[in-house]
Design brief:
The protein is of the alpha/beta class. Helix content is about 40%, strand content about 20%. The chain is built from 27 helices and 33 strands. It is globular and about 100 Å long. The two termini are about 65 Å apart.
């Protein structure tokens, strides 16, 4: 298929991150729907002259795309190309009946769809093709979620085979949003919501459902017959603005004209058109034209100055691409600062060639470089990029828009890996990459350092980045400190950067080792945010690579009573405990311990029974790795089975290698399950009650929260009791022992209170199981006459029991030190030698900002 001779040939649309691009330029899709119409001599469109007039009017109104619900004839595509309009055709098939109950009908649908695609494949006006539109919720419920997903995947690949370079999607809607269709090139949803806040919030939800793909809002609109023409115009204006404001790649207004037919009959009881049936403009046309002229953000808006800071350490190989991306930003007022942190390559020359302000310092680490860039920043907002990332052209607009919320001290967005070779793509699918953690669709708990921006005054308020973090962890620490200072973190799906992943297994493992080291530093500074095993505790949802999560588990769909729900969502089950164990790097220590016991089986054969859990654990790890590889790398036409198998094996291998690398980083820097940093002495682990008098009233919950925070800050692993527990806090000082606390607050009038705390020792269930197992083995060995094995098991039993008692004693002492009156605390402190400062206090804070500035000036 060739373009009409009167028009230049243009490249085909491509997906790039969350955008649609043509010839390397981002395309904001500004569309209207067209049809359906009464058939005319077998044609489902008006005569060519009417279509030409409609397309000319659309182009004059700033429209650049047209959506049709049936495959268009070639003459219509040629007319669209003459007006520089893209067309999004839909495939017509029997989606309103139970089509999967008839195998012959199903086969005909797939064959017909493939034939329809061949009619327009390769035409230069084709934007993308919809393989279906709103399969009714009742039909999906009848057949089942999985069967519909498999059929749509079959339909997708049948269409893709006819036009491999084309883009294909399925147009979904809220009643079946639970359909999981990761094979689609882009996501598309019809959204009819008449409340502005609800509409904006739902679009933010859709962005997170889409993953890393572009989102097209394929139908928005309002009936002017029932709501009035002025209300229609006002609604369409904010519907278009919020669609692009939340990061959508495009929007289609429903519809161009009030002329609309369904089932061969004209619909007269609603009017959604921008023009009426005689093509007379309505106020909605002016509103849409004005809204499209401002896409994605109005040029007349006032935007604060932004400083883009890129820190690099010998990153010349990717810095050029990064700065070219920064130069392509559409933001009206920004500066670029490149901090060369001890660079010995040509990074500084590359930065100067791009007109950036260059700061050259000694190699002091990433945090120090970011502080140096912040000090020299002249903008109200400081946005950070890694030297191996480059931004979407609208990145800063979305960053600045997110910081219009006064409570937001910072904002972040998605970081998406570009196509970059087999190894890099497999690394992108493996666990341990840069991730964001969301507490809602528009608020984050953490944003990664490769794509984050902050108010400069917020950075100054908390003292900038902590310079003990040389390679990683500084972004996590900064996010936590901002939130502790009362700020919130925003998340904008449109603030996209393309971030290259490591291109070799060795570099990936070095990165994971560095992350493990950073986790050890973070735990030392934020012990209350880590559990005893050394894993961080997040309140939000972690958005990680496919292989990092659990293999897909069947969720429950909330259909509503009799399938009547307007918004039908999927509720995923909580991750199983087995998944949590397999994902923990410390699980390798358990396997190592089982291997040691199996080796001792040479002395006493029954110890070889440890091979059973050892083999089971290794098998579970292998299954988990294989399942993750298969999910991360699905089979695809155009890719050989051998290539698919190679990619799956590489992802599975990375899954197996990542935990040891991360564990080494943790252990070599002090983050281990047996770490002991909280010992203020020891107290005999017996039950006791402590009373604390107070003349300043506080709620019982405030007492408990303060106590929990204080215990966690001392390095204890503390968890709260649940709604069915009689205890309030569970404090562990080691893996085998701890104490539980129950409190009550007596009210004595005039704000006077007496806090009573009951403390009693408790052994962990795991510790008790180990004790029973060792006791049984010791008895068995001695009864069998195996004296050496019996003595060894008895010695191990004594060590474990002693370790558990010591843990209970240490936890008891820690709890008492926080609850006893001040005089008793002072007396006990005088009797116990003070611990080393490094054992309880984090390292010194970063050098004063003036010192950093002096270094920059030198």
């Amino acid at each position: 298929m060739t373009a009409p001779a009167t028009q230049p040939v243009r490249g085909r649309p491509r997906v790039h991150g969350r955008s649609i691009c043509v010839d390397g330029r981002k395309l904001h899709v500004k569309g209207v729907t067209y049809g359906t119409f009464r058939e005319r001599d077998g044609e489902p469109f008006p005569d060519p002259e009417r279509v030409r007039e409609d397309f000319e009017a659309m182009a004059a109104a700033g429209v650049n795309a047209v959506r049709t619900y049936v495959p268009p004839p070639l003459w219509l595509l040629d007319l669209a190309h003459q007006q520089e309009l893209y067309v999004m055709p839909g495939l017509a098939w029997e989606q309103h009946v139970a089509f999967l109950d008839d195998p012959e009908l199903t086969a005909r649908i797939v064959a017909r769809a493939a034939h329809q695609v061949t009619e327009f494949a390769g035409h230069p006006s084709i934007l993308c093709c919809a393989i279906g539109n709103e399969i009714p919720a009742g039909i999906v419920r009848w057949h089942g979620k999985e069967r519909i997903e498999r059929f749509l995947e079959q339909l997708f690949w049948a269409a893709k085979a006819q036009d491999p370079e084309g883009l294909f999607t399925y147009v979904n809607f809220p009643s079946t949003e639970y359909l999981e269709l990761p094979f689609l090139d882009l996501a598309a949803y019809n959204v009819f919501l008449e409340q502005e806040e609800t509409y904006e919030a739902y679009l933010a939800r859709l962005q997170n459902l889409c993953g890393d793909r572009p989102l097209l809002v394929t139908e928005v609109g309002l009936d002017s017959r029932g709501n009035g023409r002025e209300a229609q115009a006002a609604a369409l204006e904010w519907q278009v603005e919020h669609a692009f404001g939340t990061g959508a790649a495009g929007v289609f207004v429903f519809s161009w004209t009030d002329e609309w037919h369904r089932g061969g009959n004209e619909v007269r009881d609603w009017d959604f058109g921008l023009v009426d049936r005689e093509r007379r403009p309505k106020p909605a046309l002016t509103a849409v034209r004005d809204a499209y002229a401002r896409v994605p953000f109005g040029s007349e808006d006032e935007w604060p100055r932004v400083s883009v800071v890129v820190c690099t350490h010998n990153g010349a190989a990717t810095l050029e691409e990064c700065l070219e991306g920064v130069a392509g930003l559409t933001y009206p007022d920004f500066e670029t600062i490149v901090v060369c942190d001890g660079c010995g390559d040509g990074s500084a020359a590359i930065a100067r060639r791009h007109g950036a302000t260059v700061i050259e310092t000694k190699h002091r680490g990433l945090s120090a470089a970011r502080n140096a860039g912040t000090l020299c920043a002249g903008g109200e907002i400081v946005a950070f990029l890694d030297d191996d990332a480059y931004p979407d052209s609208d990145w800063l607009h979305y960053v600045a828009a997110g910081l219009r919320e006064p409570r937001h001290g910072g904002v972040g967005g998605p970081n998406i890996p570009p196509e970059d070779g087999r190894t890099a793509e497999c690394v992108a699918a493996a666990p341990g990459g840069p991730i964001h953690v969301l507490v809602s669709d528009r608020e984050a708990e953490h944003v990664p350092g490769c794509n984050m921006a902050f108010r400069k005054r917020a950075l100054e308020e908390i003292g900038g980045f902590d310079e003990r973090f040389h390679v990683a962890g500084d972004d996590v620490d900064l996010c936590w400190r901002l939130q502790e200072a009362g700020w919130k973190l925003g998340f904008s799906a449109g603030a996209v950067v393309m971030h290259r992943r490591r291109d070799s297994v060795r570099r990936y493992l070095r990165q994971q080792y560095g992350y493990g080291k950073a986790e050890a530093l973070l735990e030392r500074k934020w012990p209350q945010r880590y559990n005893r095993a050394g894993s961080s505790r997040w309140s939000g949802r972690i958005y990680d690579a496919p292989a990092a999560g659990s293999p897909r588990r069947r969720g429950m769909v909330r259909y509503g009573t009799w399938g009547s729900g307007l918004f039908q969502s999927i509720y995923e089950p909580a991750p199983s405990r087995l998944d949590g164990v397999l994902l923990a790097p410390e699980f390798l220590l358990v396997l190592l311990a089982l291997l040691d016991v199996a080796v001792l089986g040479a002395l006493w054969a029954p110890l070889l029974l440890s091979l059973v859990p050892l083999v089971a654990g290794l098998g579970a790890l292998g299954w988990r790795a294989a399942a993750s590889g298969a999910e991360a790398v699905p089979a695809a036409p155009g890719r050989s089975r051998w290539e698919t198998a190679r990619r799956r094996c590489l992802v599975a291998t990375l899954f197996l290698l990542q935990p040891p690398a991360r564990l080494c980083g943790r252990l070599r820097n002090g983050l281990s399950p047996w770490r002991r940093r909280l010992a203020p002495g020891a107290a005999w682990p017996r039950p006791r009650t402590v009373e604390l008098w107070s003349e300043a009233w506080r709620s019982p919950q405030a007492y408990l929260q303060a106590l929990q925070d204080a215990l966690a800050a001392r390095g204890g692993y503390v968890r709260s009791g649940g709604p069915f527990d009689r205890w309030d806090l569970d404090l562990r000082a080691g893996p085998l022992g701890g104490v539980k606390l129950r409190t009550v607050v007596e009210e004595h009038g005039s704000g006077n209170q007496l806090l009573r705390a009951r403390i009693w020792p408790r052994a962990s269930a795991k510790g008790a199981a180990v004790v029973l197992l060792l006791a049984a083995l010791a008895a068995w060995a001695l009864a069998s006459g195996e004296l050496e094995a019996g003595v060894a098991c008895a010695a191990a039993l004594i060590v474990v029991v002693g370790f558990g008692v010591e843990g209970c004693a240490t936890a008891m002492s820690l709890a008492l030190s926080e609850l006893e009156p001040e005089a008793e605390i002072a007396r006990r402190a005088a009797e116990v030698p003070a611990p080393e400062p490094e054992a309880v206090e984090p390292r010194a804070l970063p050098a004063p900002r003036t010192a950093v500035l002096e270094e920059v000036r030198r």
